Amino acid sequence: MKTATKVILSVAAAAAAGAMIGMLLAPEKGKDLQAKIRDGAKDWLADLSALLRMGKDVAEEARSQGEEALAGLKRSTKALSEKV
Fold it and tell me: Where are the transmembrane segments (predicted)?
């Protein structure tokens, strides 16, 4: 996993944990707190899903670029071997 991805996931996890702790320490009614936690969890899950989709897209792009580079290397190697 790239460093940037690790940083993004760490920040997201820390933000979610901070939000949950803040809600638990807030002086609110139980039902209001439960609703806030439920909504916060839904938001956090949506953010996590977006990060995972982004990670999947980045991985797919890296795979595609790797395949293109390998194909170019094979062509270059073949051309050189034909000259020899």
Answer: 6-26
For residue 58, what are its two tokens?
A: 């980045």
* Measured distance between the N- and C-terminal CA atoms of the chain, rounded to whole angstroms: 41
CA angle 39, 47, 55 (to 5 degrees): 160
Q: Are 12 and 51 in contact (CB under 8 A)?
A: yes
Asked if residues 23 and 33 have their Cβ atoms less than 8 Å apart, the reply is yes
Q: What confidence tens digit (pLDDT) does each residue in 34-58 have?
A: 788 788 888 888 888 888 888 888 8
Residues 52-76 have pLDDT tens digits of 888 888 889 999 999 999 999 999 9
Quote the CA–CA distance of 29 and 12 in Å, as a whole number: 27
